[in-house]
Design a protein that fits this description.
single chain, alpha/beta, Spore Coat Polysaccharide Biosynthesis Protein SpsA, Chain A, 2 domains, 8-stranded mixed sheet
């Protein structure tokens, strides 16, 4: 009996790319992966173009293609993870983007390493076809989260990972309302190996992941898997308090030793101190607010997504 490989592709307004993505993945299973069965799950995040209609056409002609259509746009992270949880493969490719910036041609190499006993095979975005500003920002983020996370997480690793079924079963035990999937796999443990590759430029259309969405996802990863923001706030607060005490002592000594009218009553100092400490307090309040929002999202126990329909899934799925 052939082993089943599941591939998950999230999509939102990707009418120009979904068919190309389907054909590229299918070509791998018609060629080097012909000894495996395929399950390709598309998670449509309530697209407003023809994406869902194209996926219905594909699914009607290929039972290996399954489609989840969400009732509204729940964001890429929640929608993707919901599709991953719906997979039934012996191994699961967590994220195959419709724009194929992470190339499907790497899948045979991932599967070969999985067959060698690695439960997590992850792609390392060693080089990128994008502007130097975004390249530098992404690299800095990956370096920071890799260094300060309590989970051993290699730099420049995204969601493009092939994981064994046992890894997914371990991930299921974590009830996360806003999953940061790329690090959940490493938190689960198991044997892992990386494959460096070139992150391609998008050929058709444009990314639906806005800058603010990327910032939101980055903050989610930092808050969920590192303690550095709160610990940093503690250290900064302690340092500022010590400096304030030292400054107060110096001012008192200078006042006591002064023999004449050496300065005005210190109005400029008060203004600077007021704005400085107010800024510190507002920053820390915002930081605590991020953690409170994360806690609030968890305790509400809302579903990952609300689905409109599933196509080509069996009743038990």
């Amino acid at each position: 009996m052939k082993k089943l490989i599941s591939i998950t592709t999230p999509c939102f307004n990707e009418e120009e790319n979904v068919r190309d993505c389907y054909e590229a993945v299918k070509a791998q299973f018609d060629g080097p992966l012909s000894g495996y069965d395929r399950e390709h799950i598309f998670a449509d995040n309530c697209s407003t173009d023809k994406t869902a209609a194209i996926l219905r056409e594909i699914a009607a002609s290929d039972p290996a293609v399954k489609v989840i259509v969400n009732a509204r746009n729940f964001g890429p992270m929640r929608s993707t993870y919901n599709a991953v949880l719906a997979s039934s493969g012996d191994a699961i490719l967590l994220f195959q983007p419709a724009d194929m910036q992470d190339p499907p041609s790497l899948l045979p190499q991932f599967v070969a390493l999985w067959e060698q006993g690695y439960e997590i095979v992850y792609g390392i975005r060693a080089t990128r076809s994008e502007g130097w500003v975004m390249r530098a920002v992404r690299h800095a983020f990956y370096q920071m989260i890799s260094r300060f996370s309590y989970v051993s997480f290699p730099p420049d690793v995204g969601d493009y990972q092939l994981v064994d079924r046992k890894v997914l079963d371990a991930m299921r035990k974590t009830e996360d309302a806003y999953p940061f999937m790329r690090m959940m796999t490493f938190e689960s443990g198991f044997r892992a190996v990386g494959v460096p590759y070139h992150w391609l430029a998008r050929k058709k259309g444009f990314s639906k992941n806005s800058f603010f969405s990327l910032v939101d996802q980055g903050l989610n990863g930092i808050i969920t898997f590192t303690t550095i923001p709160l610990r940093g706030a503690l250290f900064v607060g302690t340092a500022v308090s010590i400096l304030s005490i030292v400054y107060a002592v110096i001012t008192l000594v200078a006042s006591l030793l002064a023999t004449g009218h050496v300065a005005q009553p210190g109005i400029p100092t008060l203004i600077v101190a007021l704005f400085f400490f107010a800024g510190i307090q507002i920053f820390f309040m915002g930081l605590l607010g991020e953690y409170i929002l994360a806690i609030y999202g968890q305790v509400r126990k809302k579903p990952l997504v609300i689905e409109r329909e599933r196509i080509n899934f069996t009743a038990k799925e």
